[in-house]
Amino acid sequence: MRFKDKVAIVTGGASGLGRATAMRLASEGASVGIADINDAGAKLVAEEIADAGGVARPLRLDITVEEDFRSAVGAMVESYGRLDIMHNNAAFTSPEAIAQDTDILEISNDIWDQIFAGTVRGTMHGCRHAILAMRRHGGGAIVNTASMYGVEAFYKMPAYCVSKAAVIQLTKQVATAFGRQGIRCNAVAPSMISTPLLDASIPAAFIEMNAEATLTGYLGTPEDVAQAVAWLASDEARYITGQVIRVDGGSTAHLATYADARRFYDAPVAA
Ligand SMILES: NC(=O)c1ccc[n+]([C@@H]2O[C@H](COP(=O)([O-])OP(=O)(O)OC[C@H]3O[C@@H](n4cnc5c(N)ncnc54)[C@H](O)[C@@H]3O)[C@@H](O)[C@H]2O)c1
């Protein structure tokens, strides 16, 4: 029960990685706000947590709207008296925006700005309102969700890649500026994570290529990311701040030729 008496908010908590983290934090004693643009989904996750004996409430939040952060944090402080953990997990990943995030010659300024307003400004607002609440009782832990695409470049999705790189620098900036006020701020940078949504929307061959690039030989699960977030949010990580933990099975630890090299050297020799 690492989070007994702790109060947490998880943005994008209605699905995928956010849902897994919300459930992990709640299972270890935290009261969790499931902050999501998807009201029905947030309510379902809060119910699932309650059914399992935990404490959670849905919070209506659109990461592009600062007022929603103010209200979400206010609601948690009103209900549970404090805020200890903020997990800024949601990004601006509407299918329409991602489909148009092709390359910098083509992407419209409007889509570029929307992705930045959601992913970068939204994460900044999450940090801002969390810090305002946390420092009233001596501090807290913020964990932002970046991506391997914010650590290394991908040849598509420039706005997504650059916005996630900005989330990493924001993480370090917040850790630096507010460390002496008891705020720790870290990020996780997941590689491709196996979710039902991913399996349904990404061609199996491309998922397999991503698995081949891992050093573990398999893609991680939302629970793998949730474990890392929970550790960063816990007092066990009290001396860890301003860091980016790559939850990526080693995908970004090696040279780009890794998968080809394995095929080359490990290919069965013809009899
Ligand atoms: N799944 C992966 O492979 C992967 C890899 C690296 C990073 N990430 C990052 O992890 C985070 C979560 O991704 P996921 O795969 O769990 O996605 P998901 O689609 O399963 O869940 C995202 C959640 O965010 C919510 N959301 C979307 N727009 C929102 C908004 N404007 N305001 C508030 N909530 C909003 C959705 O309703 C949904 O509940 C994102 O930041 C994503 O970039 C995911």
Description of the molecule:
By secondary structure, this protein is of the alpha/beta class. The chain has a single domain, classed as NAD(P)-binding Rossmann-like Domain (Rossmann fold), CATH 3.40.50.720. Helices cover 49% and strands 14% of the residues. The chain contains 11 helices and 7 strands. A 7-stranded parallel sheet has the order 3-2-1-4-5-6-7, sandwiched between helices. Helix 2 links the parallel strand 2 and strand 3. Helix 3 runs parallel beside helix 5 and helix 5 packs parallel to helix 7. 45% of the residues are buried. The model has no long low-confidence stretch (mean pLDDT 96). The site of nicotinamide-adenine-dinucleotide has 29 residues, from helix 1 and helix 8.
SS summary, helix count: 11
Helix content: 40-55%
Per CATH, the class reads: Alpha Beta
E-strand count:
7
Q: Looking at the structure, what is the overall shape? A: globular
Which structural traits does this protein have?
271 residues; alpha/beta; Rossmann fold; 7-stranded parallel sheet; 11 helices; globular; binds nicotinamide-adenine-dinucleotide
Topology:
Layout: E1 7-11, H1 16-27, E2 31-36, H2 39-51, E3 55-60, H3 66-80, E4 85-88, H4 95-100, H5 109-134, E5 140-145, H6 148-151, H7 158-178, E6 183-190, H8 196-201, H9 204-212, H10 222-233, E7 244-247, H11 258-266
Parallel strand pairs: 1-2, 1-4, 2-3, 4-5, 5-6, 6-7
Helix pairs in contact: 1-10, 3-5, 5-7
The structure holds nicotinamide-adenine-dinucleotide.
Nicotinamide-adenine-dinucleotide (NAD) is lined by residues 11-12, 14-18, 36-38, 41, 61-64, 89-93, 118, 145, 147, 190, 192-193, 195, 197-198.
